[in-house]
Description:
Blueprint: E1 2-4, E2 7-12, E3 22-24, E4 27-30, E5 36-40, H1 50-72, H2 89-104, E6 113-116, E7 122-128, E8 131-137, E9 143-148, E10 153-158, H3 160-171
Antiparallel strand pairs: 1-2, 2-5, 3-4, 4-5, 6-7, 7-8, 8-9, 9-10
Amino acid sequence: MVTTENRTQISTYSTPNVSTVVVLGLAAITASASPVVSLDHSASVTPPTMLDLFEYQMNRKFVVLQEKINQFGLLKRDWNGYDAAPIPSTALDDAKLFLQSLRSSNIDLNGWEVFPTARETIQFEKTVCENYIEIEVYSNGRFAYYSEGRENLEIESISIKEAMEKISGVFG
């Protein structure tokens, strides 16, 4: 360890093309040609709470799901080997809106998966214990909802608001 300017250098590593600055508790990671992680002894320590860790995990899952949706926009005709058409941009936009609605409604994003379908839709699904929910996002603003578990019902076409109410009723 090397001490300079009231900071204790914990480790040094090189990462090309990194321009991010991250601060976690007392550790500060600064970006440069050779980022340095240092410990500032003058700062007070506030350990992360379970809520902090949950929010971090939720943000991470949100980014992963959003990136998957973005990747679906790159699919070309025959992406599944059975002549499936590309996913329309309106379905992609509505899927991102639905994902944002899940996040803003504090619905746990862990366990949610997202897939493109050959019907030019995006399908979200989640299973917790005996509860399974599937939401299919169409390009015309429609959402299809299917649930198994405490409820056995199928709804052909619902709004995003109705979908959020159904999801909150099962997982909220």
